[in-house]
Amino acid sequence: MTDDATIGNPNQDARNRMGRYTRTPEAVARDAEAARLYYDEGLSLQQIADHFGWKWHTSALTAINRALRDVAEPTKGVRDRRERELQFLWDAAMEIYNKEHIVVSHGRVAELNGEPIPDDGPRLQALEQLRKVNVELRKLHGSDAAVKVDATVTEVTQQDIELAELIRETQAKNAAEEARIKGESAG
Predict the structure, then answer these.
(1) Exposure of 124 by Cβ count < 10 A (0-12 exposed, 13-18 middle, 19+ buried)?
(2) Which residue from 158, 160, 157 is spatially nearest to 168, judged by alpha carbons?
(3) What pairing do the DSSP bridges indicate for beta strands 108-109 and 104-105?
(4) Which of 28, 55, 91, 147 gives the lowest tally of CB atoms within 10 Å of its CB?
């Protein structure tokens, strides 16, 4: 049986070489199992808490949230690394864009009236690379994500309205009964 004070602590189970708390592989697996029971099996938070021998349903919620965070953090690391790569490419293209380029023909600087002829080709190529990096950054951050609109028109009958009201009343009664039961068990 696991103590809820331990399971509620997001940095539980073991200390690393620096004396900081770190989660053990067993704790990570337990949190993942709690999330699986909740999302795949449809168990309630209290059922999950009972399954693991935890006193409070909030311990199950904490474990599920940690499992979800475990999944999101590696993704964030990959995204951060990709952003650094794109920033490097952006900086390199900007460096090329900001330089002065001259036309070279047959290994010699091309001149007009004794002055080197500027070459805009490398700057235009750098701009094209900047555009491509910009596209990748927008994809990475989701700013180009398509917006899906679901516009459905549904006719509502008097029976639908009455059924919705009956459902609301039943939910309110259930919530009141649950609160009463929790109040009795706490006292």
Answers:
(1) exposed
(2) 160
(3) antiparallel
(4) 147
* 44, two tokens: 């309630």
Q: How many CB atoms lie within 10 A of CB 66?
A: 21
Give the model confidence (pLDDT) of 90-148 as tens digits: 999 999 999 999 999 999 999 999 999 999 999 999 999 999 999 988 888 777 766 66
Classify residue 21 by its DSSP letter: E
3-state secondary structure of 108: strand
Structure tokens at 8: 């509620």
- pLDDT for position 187: 63
Least Cα distance to 60 among 13, 2, 14 occurs for: 2
Burial 167-186 (b: 16+ CB within 10 A, else e): eeeeeeeeeeeeeeeeeeee
Give φ, ψ of 113 to 5 degrees. Answer: 60, 35
CA distance 141 to 139: 6
Q: Which residues contact 129 (CB under 8 A, 6 or more apart)?
A: 89, 93
